[in-house]
Amino acid sequence: MTVQTSYKLSPATKSSKNIDLLKEPILLRLGIEHDDLPNELSNAVKILGFEGVKDEAAIFSDATGGKTEAFEAPLCILAVLLNPAHRGREKRLLDWLKGRGIIEEPVILEWRTGKEMETAGVLIRKLSGMLVSDARRMVKSNRELLALRTLNDNLQNRFATVESFIDRKGMQPFELAFSNEPVTSSSRSNVLADASFDGVSQVLPVASAGVSAIAIHFDRLSHRDDATLNAQLVTMEDMAIVESWVIPLGKLKHGWNYLGLSRTLAGLRRTLNLRVQLDGADDELPLLSLGGLQPLEMFQVRDAANDVPLLKNSLAIQVWCGMPGVVLPSWANYLPAQSEKVREGGFREMPLASGILDLATLANTDEISFEFAAILPLPEEKAVGCHPPSTGMTIGQIPAACPPKILRISSDVVVDNEESQDVEFAIVVAASLENARPLFAEQRTVDPGEGFSGWVSIAPGENNRISAFINDQIGVWQNIYFATRMTTPGDNSFAWAKFRNVSLMVNG
Asked: How many Cβ atoms are within 10 Å of 184's Cβ, its own excluded?
C-alpha cells in the first residue's frame, strides 16, 4: 500500500528539541504565559507555546522562553490551551498541522481562571481515551500476529509435507531447460579414451540460475565394480567447485544418468563447466554419447587438462532447472561442495518478449495455403502455432528478432492435441528465407551468423526443448525462422504444433 501526503517533507533536523517533540505527549498554549499555568500541570506534562509559523516551520517556545523550529508535527498533542481573548489564533496552528498530515485535530480548550479542574478533567478523559485506544490496537495487533504465526506454521508444515512426498516418491519437480539428444555416428568416437587422465569437460549452454540437475548419456557401459565416475560442476569465472559426484560405474545405466545438485543454484550469474573423469577403468572405458556437430568451439567437448576440443561435437546432455534455492530429493547422488566467491559474468538467458512473438508471419506463402492461419501468435501461452502441411513444411518467420552476439536460441516444442500424428520441429537463424530453405532441407552447413537446430520429432503429449547455436557471431541482426512438418507425410489433422517459451542466450 502506498500512502501519499499533500506536503513536502523537510530534511531531518539534528536538534534534540525537535526529536523530543516527536517522542513525548505535549500541551500547547496560545496567548497564555507559562507562569500563568499551575506548577502541578507543568510538572506533569511538557507544555510549549505556539508562536507562529515561519518558512513552513512552526515556532514553539518552552518555559524559559527558548525558541524551537519544528518542520514536522508533534506525534501526540494532548490538547491546545487557548486564552479566550486570542480566539482565532488557533486556525494558523490547525492549518499547519493539517499541512503536515495530521488527520485528527487536537482538542481546543479555553483556559479560564477558576476553571482549572474542569480543564484537567477534560485532559484526563482525553488521555484515558488514548490509553484505551492504544490498548485495543495492541490487543488487535497481538491477535493478528498470532494468526500470522499460525498461518506461517501451517504453510511450513504443508511445505514440509510436499517435500517429504516428493522425496519419498523420488519425483523431480523440475523442468527441462536444455536438451542435446545423442546422435548415432559411424566413427563412435570414445572421447573418454581420447582424453587425458583429467577426462573431458563440457561448457553448459544455459544460465546458471535455477540449474538443479544435469543428465549425461551413455551408449555403452563398463561394469567394473572397482571403477568410479568422477564429475565436477565448476564455475568458469573463478574455477570454484559448485558440486561434485563420485559414482561407482555399477550404479550407472545405459541411456540418461542424472547428476542432481544438492540445492538448485541461485545468486550471481555464472558460466558452468561440467568435468567428467573415470578412475580405475583403463582397459574398458564406457562410451559417452555425443550430440550433433557444434559450430561454436566453446561448446564442443574438450580435454579437461588443456581445454582443447576433442571433436566438433558436444556431449549429449540435458539440463534441468527449478526454483532457485530448493533442496533436491534424497535420491540425487551427490557430494556437495560450495563456491565461496564468484565474480560477475556468465551466461544470461533472455526470453523473447510476447510482443516480438506477435510479429510472427508465414514465410513460404508460395508453398503453403490453409483456410486458417498457418502461423498463429498465441501471446497468452507465450507461444506461436505453426501448423504443418500434409507434405512439405510450414515456415514461419520473425524478422530481425535475433540480436548480434547471441550464442543460442531455444524453444519448447509441443503437439497440443492427442489425436495428432507425430510432428517434426526445427529452428533456423539466417538473413533471409533463401538462406534458411537449404538449411531446413539439410542441403548445406551453416555460415557465420547462422544457426540450425536440426529436426526433432515430437509425439502428442511429449514436451521437448530444441536449440540452434549461432555459428561465429556477427554484428548484424538476423531473422528467426521456425518450421514444422509431419514425421510421416499424410494426415496432418489436429497437428497443433507450437513453439513455446522462446529464449536467447548471451554471454555476460
From this structure: 8
Enter the C-alpha cell of residue 309: 576440443
pLDDT digits (tens, 9 = 90+) for 18-66: 666 666 788 888 888 888 888 877 787 888 888 888 888 888 888 888 8
Phi and psi at residue 117, to the nearest 5°: -65, -40
Q: Are 258 and 214 a contacting pair, CB within 8 Å?
A: yes
Q: Collapsing DSSP states into helix, strand and coil, what is residue 484?
A: strand
The phi, psi pair for 79, rounded to 5°, reads -175, 170
Three-state SS for 82-139 is: ECHHHCCCHHHHHHHHHHCCCCCCCCEEECCCCCHHHHHHHHHHHHHHHHHHHHHHHH
CA atoms within 13 A on the CB side of 115: 12
Contact status, residue 415 vs residue 388, Cβ threshold 8 Å: no
Domains and CATH numbers, the chain: 16-113 (no CATH), 176-345 (2.60.120), 354-507 (2.60.120)
CB atoms inside a 10 Å sphere around CB 418: 10
Distance CA 36, CA 326 (A): 70
With contact defined as beta carbons under 8 Å apart, do 393 and 483 qualify?
yes
CA distance 390 to 489: 6
C-alpha cell recorded at residue 299 = 561448446
Residues in the chain: 508
Give the residue among 300, 314, 236, 302 at the shortest CA–CA distance from 271: 236
CB 496 within 8 A of CB 386: no
pTM for the whole structure: 0.47
Burial of 157 (0-12, 13-18, 19+ CB in 10 A): exposed
DSSP 175: E
Work out the angle at residue 362's Cα, subtended by the Cα atoms of residues 356 and 365, and round it to the nearest 5 degrees. 160
Predicted confidence (pLDDT) per residue in 444-465, tens digit: 999 988 999 999 999 998 888 9
